[in-house]
Design brief:
404 residues; binds zinc ion; 13 helices; 5-stranded mixed β-sheet; alpha/beta; binds 5'-O-[(R)-(carboxyoxy)(hydroxy)phosphoryl]adenosine
Length: 404
């Protein structure tokens, strides 16, 4: 991607809406990296003036997973309306915007392309600065829209496409402590849910895989299916979920044979399988996060006053997982902050907020005519995974007793 920054004056400036109200600078945020078409207008204080979100979850649940060209077509059909809705609800005319911020990395190529193409046309038409956004940076910073969390803080991002632990040292300054070696936890949960045919469950027909597993786990007994927590022998902060998914698939196959049913039929023990799955994902996330905290302590990477763990991404809306993580943060003397579920999953607000943060600091603001390219794969920050592994930190035993 080319970077020809525009000179932007920092500090709060003001513009007026059609109704004559005065706001600080306004940013339009646009998100299309996966299966949500989102747009929002924020002022510089983080006030949401208007937003719109079109979720594709229902369509993808019907087809049994995200088919990239289908996601692309849905973004194409909805983007104009979603952006107009966000502007309309804000009562803001494009001429009043100070910048447009759009996710350009990482994500699904076909989906990213729609948001980027739309945005580049839009900024050229209205002659507005453009702020390309890193989707994971946006997830990590969302919390600062809601709470005054100062840098540095530790962040765990867990979604359908990513799982990573990083120290956020500044708006565009991250130390990557660990990430998934294979799939993300949300992806594993979605695939387990699909293998269990949970869309056929009367309570789960419209829920994402992770939501379905959380709901069913409430009435399940996790002890019925003991699962091995992944990567018990690797003393690092990386994650792995595909082996866990295999363990669960083997259990499902065995139970289907026992119950004499075929794949595609609901098992009688779905609640217990959901509970065991959720507990093992929670334990794995808690252990890696625990090691990240100890690594940060050993290397003075977090402030001694009010050190904080921020948890975000779609999987962070899971209350059981939050509880597991909070047992670790309480033990280690950290505070824990999670944005509300609505801001944990993909949306235009978090992209607009990242735009606000970058606008305030004057980082990565491009003139409208600069050609920007999307990047399906994009690392976040400086890779410290080798340093973490070399430290070989052993974890103390912690009992994760979590009421479901
Ligand atoms: O952040 P997000 O909206 O999109 C990505 O960037 O991936 O996260 C979506 C993922 C899906 O895999 C979904 O199953 C998972 O987050 N998810 C959950 C819950 N709600 C959504 N996982 C566990 N528990 C939940 N309550
Ligand atoms: Zn996301």
């Amino acid at each position: 991607m080319q970077h020809r920054p525009l000179h932007v004056t920092t500090g709060v400036q003001h513009s007026q809406t059609a109704t004559g109200h005065s706001y600080s600078r306004l940013v339009l945020g646009i998100e299309t990296s996966c299966d949500d078409t989102g747009a929002a207008v924020l002022d510089e204080t983080g006030k949401i003036l208007g937003e719109s979100l079109h979720s594709q979850t229902e369509v993808h649940l019907r087809t049994g997973g995200i088919i990239p060209p289908v996601a692309q077509q849905l973004h194409r059909e909805n983007i104009e309306r979603v952006v107009q809705e966000a502007l309309g609800r804000s009562n803001v005319h494009p001429s009043q915007l100070s910048a447009v911020a759009t996710t350009v990395k990482p994500g699904m190529a076909l989906s990213l392309g729609i948001g980027l193409e739309f945005s580049q046309r839009f900024v050229r038409q209205h002659n507005k600065p453009f702020i390309p956004i890193h989707h994971m940076e946006a997830h990590a910073l969302t919390v600062r829209m809601l709470h005054p969390v100062a840098f540095p803080f530790l962040v765990l991002l867990v979604s359908g496409g990513h799982s990573l632990l990083a120290v956020a040292r500044g708006v565009d300054d991250f130390l990557l402590l660990g990430q998934s070696l294979d799939v993300a936890p949300g992806d594993a949960l979605d695939k387990v849910a699909r293998r269990l045919s949970l869309t056929k469950h009367p309570q789960c027909s419209t829920l994402s895989g992770g939501q379905a597993i959380e709901l069913l786990a409430k009435d399940g007994d996790r002890m019925k299916f003991p699962l091995t927590t992944p990567m018990g022998k690797s003393n690092d902060c990386c994650f792995s979920f595909s082996g866990l998914r295999n363990q669960i698939t083997m259990i499902i196959i065995k139970k289907e044979a026992e119950e004499g049913i075929e794949e595609g039929t609901l098992l009688s023990c779905v609640n217990d399988i959901a509970a065991a799955t959720q507990h093992t994902v929670a334990t794995h996330l808690a252990k890696r996060t625990h090691r990240a905290i100890l690594f940060c302590k050993a290397n003075n990477l977090l402030p001694s006053n009010n050190p904080t763990l921020v948890v975000s991404g779609g999987v962070a809306s899971n209350q059981y997982i939050r509880k597991a993580l909070s047992l670790i943060t309480e033990r280690e003397g950290l505070g824990m902050l999670c944005p509300p579920a609505k801001f944990c999953t993909d949306n235009g607000v978090m992209i607009a907020w990242n735009g606000v943060e970058r606008l305030r600091e004057g980082i990565g603001i491009l003139s409208p005519n600069v050609d920007v390219y999307y990047e399906p794969k994009a690392p976040l920050g400086v890779d410290m995974t080798e340093e973490v592994r070399a430290a070989g930190i052993k974890l103390p035993r912690v009992k994760l007793e979590i009421p479901s």
